[in-house]
User: Fold this.
Amino acid sequence: MNDEQRMLADMAGDLFTNLGPDAAMKDHWSAIEEVALTGLLLPEDKGGFGGSWGDALIAFRLAGYHALGLPVVEAVVAAALTQRPEGRGTIASRTEGTVSGVTFTGRISGACLASGADYIVAPCPEGGSMVLSVADAKVEAHENLAGEARDGLVCTGTSVERIEADVFAFGALARVAQIAGALDAALEKAVNYANERQQFGRPLAKFQAVQQNLATFACEAAAANCAAMGAAQAMSRGEAPFEIAAAKLRANRAVGIGTALAHQVHGAIGFTEEYPLHPLTRRLWAWRSEFGNDSVWAEKLGQTIVARGAENFWADLTALTG
Assistant:
């Protein structure tokens, strides 16, 4: 991490600490604009920070670590995809319908806080992505398991702008980074609890079974972080469909093991509303499904490997992450 990235980490960490999970209860878009990270991936000549995917990884991971209730990550991705320095943009994960010329009729699902947004970037049924004005669609409010806004939009002949970039892949990479951060936070809470909680006259952390669980948890968190870093490095060098597929699949699987162990170590207290573990684990369960669950990315990864052939496997595995 260079000096500029350390400054970014300090700034983002302070901001996200103050906002935290409760930020979802505030004036959403005003709070996002106050954070002022939307232009992180935009070049300086377009009014942005000129940051890399390595920089984005730092901010996205911290958003996950602090269980940030605001869709800052989605706003950063939307601005990067559209190259728009102005306006309130967000992204969606699913689209059903048809594109006819420059109009779309159908339904968009999984939109991250569409209410109050100016535009949304969603997967295009014909490939790539499409950008449309939220004002031209009917917004239906929905939430994911963690209580985060995942709205639906009903479109009838809504004007769209086609772009080549794949919002589904960008969203998946963002979720990998958030998952990595949230797993680290949950692991930290589990370790602290195991050291503080006394059972039979000694801390839980002194029991071999608990130590084994924490070690397994640490391995899963490290794997998710490595996957996120590898995919971000690949994106900084060019397109990275293989790396993103592998990273999302690995991070998804880490969620299942990590959250189970976090709650096992904490026992019943980990499920209570007032204890700060559930804002992390509920988000992890939701993010595991968003922008591709295990089966989606396993299928994509398998199809890519088979299509390329066994002779290209090692080269493809190491080409962009070395």
